[in-house]
Each structure stands twice: as C-alpha cells, then as structure tokens.
Write a structure and sequence with these properties.
The protein has 394 residues and is of the alpha/beta class. It contains 14 helices and 15 strands. The two termini are 28 Å apart.
C-alpha cells in the first residue's frame, strides 16, 4: 500500500486528502484498526520519531502523549512512586511495576491530563497487555507502535465501539534525508533534522556549578528530544525521566517558560496529600475528577468548594489549598531540568524557572545577553549547558 485515502484534511472542507509515498514505494505502516485522519497521522509520525529517539539515546523504553502535533509529555519506563500512581489514576492497575512501557505511558498521560484528553499515543516498543489496559479506559484517538501482543491488540480493538485507531509502524523505516512540504502552493525543501541529542551535547557547561548528575543528563535529553518535536517556540521541564511541563507554540519565550512552569507546578501539586485525599462524590468519572482538581488548584477554587456547589463534586467538603500553602510546597522542589529550543534572550526565564525547582538548564546559547542569563543561574547555583543547537519545529 503506497497511499491511504483520508476522509478529509485538517478540516472537513479540505478534500480530497491522502497520505502517500511520492516515490511509489509502500507506506511504512499497517493500519490494524480504525481509520486515522490527517491530524492523526501528523501526530503519529511526529510522536513515533520522539519515542524512537528517546529510546535510542537513553536505552529506556519511551511513551508519549500527543495533541495537535505537540507532545503533552514524554516519559521513559521508570517505576512510579505510590503518590504518583495515585496522581496519575493508575494505582489500581495490576502488573504496572512489571511493565516499563506501561509505566512510561502512565507517566506521559498523567502529566497534563487536561491536554492529553483525546490524545494520540506513541510507544517505542511492542504494546503489552498492561499498557493496553491503561489506554483502554482513557479518552484517546489512537496509537502507533512497532508491534502489539495479541492480547493488547484485542483490548485496544474494543475501544470506541471497535473504531479505535491502531497503527503499526516498521521500526526499521528510514525516511529520505530531504523533506518537502507545500504552503500556498509553494514547495519548501530542507534537510531532515537528524541532529543527535545525547549526553555529548551537554559538555559545554558555562556556569560556576558544573556538576551534572546522570539523572539530570537523562532528564535534559528527554527535554531536548521532546522539544525537537514540539511546535516552536517551546520550553520543556523534566524530572525523574519524564517531561512534566511543555510550553509550546508561544511567540515569546518567557510565555513558553511561564506556561511550562505552570504545568510543572500543577504536576507537583497533584501529588500533595490535600489533592490525593480528596473524597469525590459517587459517580464522578476520571475526566471529571481531573477537571475538578484543576479548578481546586486554581484561583477559582470556590467554583468547586462553595457552600452551594461542593456536594456536586465531593462526598466530604475539602479544605482549601491556599496559594500560600501551594507556594510553600513548591518552594521545596528542586532537581528539575529545563530545556529550551532556542536561546534565552533575558534572565527572566531563569527567574521563573527557579520558582518551579529548576536546577539544571540546557539551551543553545548565542544571545547578546548570555552573560546575564549565566549570572542568574550562578545566583541560584544552577548548572547550565550551552548546546549550540537550535531545535525549532514547524
């Protein structure tokens, strides 16, 4: 099969639509179930590249959750602490600790659950039964992986009344080194971004503190590869083998940093005992719980805690989680890594990063104000590496 006809393009009015191999060769995929659409395939092929590269450069299995051609998170297969299992709604999944791939997806999906609602999933390795069980109860559009066990495939095929999109990709497929696309009838051509992101990229440490531990190296690699497939401008916070906050597609870098930092803060706050011990009303589903938690942690917490409304959401009225309490909790966070797809033009990005526990930074460097950014890192004892490589993705 060298082409696949699509129902429509990005929008229903954009017809005809298809994916195909211009050289007449076969597509490197098999559609095992469903009928993926144009945006589904954009997510699928971008997300597959991400997990494949993370696996190649960390040696660990990887999963990512994509929405609208940007990752909400990416993670490697590290076991989840008990509090994180509860925060990710996977504490009841049998066999989770025995499946690194399931751990990776549980982390990726649990990072930014609001953004991941209706996600596209990519897995670096064969989808197993435990991973499929997690996916089966989440709202998701589809999945791409190099293989599926028979039981995993059976579970996934039952999703969405049998219409769940399941794509198998040839793990050995290598694209042409030149890529092309059209905009307004004009063809753009460029070399594929095959720049390798590994530990060697982090050797140019420009701060006074030059101690970059192995776990931070892994987190920075995950952060930078995530950025390689995120709509620019973009910034990514990572810790413990997963991206915990992605700020994508912002025109200003500080807005990227603020957005990613806010998401990282929410990830940390969701693991606080006040959140983990919320008593939800009977019948409140998983997506609703997530939305309620988001409001509970926001400036509009009275929308779910108010005298006339709380019983709709909770069996017991929770204590407020005040901004002062949240700030105090977050002030104790450290060891977070931060990657940026282009240089930081001002030190305000470092000031904001510090509030989210950032200790390690990787960015290209090259700003006329690099000295101010380095000074800001030195003020907080951060480690910062200049990679010398921009990672724009459009």
């Amino acid at each position: 099969m060298n082409e696949f006809q699509l129902k429509y393009g990005c929008n229903p009015n954009q017809k005809p639509s298809r994916i195909f191999m211009a050289d007449g060769s076969d597509l490197p995929i098999e559609i095992l179930n469903g009928k993926p659409g144009y945006i589904n395939f954009l997510d699928a092929f971008n997300s597959w590249q991400l997990v494949k590269e993370v696996k190649e450069n960390t040696g660990m299995v990887c999963a990512t959750s994509f929405k609208h051609v940007s990752p909400t998170s990416a993670a490697v297969g590290k076991k989840l602490p008990e509090k994180l299992k509860r925060a990710c709604f996977v504490d009841d999944i049998e066999g989770l600790d025995d499946s690194p791939l399931a751990c990776a997806y549980a982390r990726a999906r649990g990072t930014d659950r609001m953004s991941s609602f209706g996600d596209w999933i990519a897995l670096s390795d064969e989808c197993d039964e435990v991973t499929a069980k997690i996916i089966s109860r989440e709202v998701s559009d589809g999945i791409i992986a190099p293989a599926y066990t028979p039981k995993a495939l059976e579970i996934l095929k039952a999703k969405r009344k049998g219409g769940y999109n399941i794509v198998k990709i040839d793990k050995d497929y290598r694209p042409d080194p030149i890529e092309r696309k059209q905009v307004f009838g004009i063809t753009f051509e460029q070399g594929r971004n095959e720049f390798k992101i590994d530990a060697s990229l982090l050797q140019n440490i420009v701060t006074k503190n030059k101690h970059l531990p192995p776990e931070a190296i892994t987190d920075l690699i995950i952060s930078l590869i995530t950025l390689k497939y995120t709509q620019s401008n973009s910034v990514c916070f990572a810790v413990d083998g997963q991206a915990i906050g992605v700020g994508a597609g912002q025109q200003s870098r500080i807005h990227c940093t603020r957005l990613a930092g806010t998401k990282a803060d929410l990830w940390h706050l969701r693991q606080h005992d006040k959140v983990l011990n919320l008593h939800f009303a009977e019948g409140v589903g998983r997506p609703d719980k997530n939305n309620i938690i988001d409001i509970y942690l926001s400036d509009e917490s009275e929308d779910v805690l108010g005298e006339n409304v709380w019983k709709q959401y909770f069996s017991e009225r929770p204590e407020p989680f005040t901004k002062e309490e949240q700030k105090e909790y977050l002030s104790k966070i450290s060891g977070v890594s931060l990657g940026s797809d282009a240089f930081f033009p001002f030190s305000d990005n470092i000031e904001r990063a510090k509030k989210s526990g950032v200790s390690y930074v990787a960015q290209p460097g090259g700003s006329v104000r690099d000295d101010l950014v380095i000074d800001a890192c030195d003020k907080y004892g951060m480690v910062m590496a200049f990679t010398g490589m921009r990672l724009f993705h459009h």
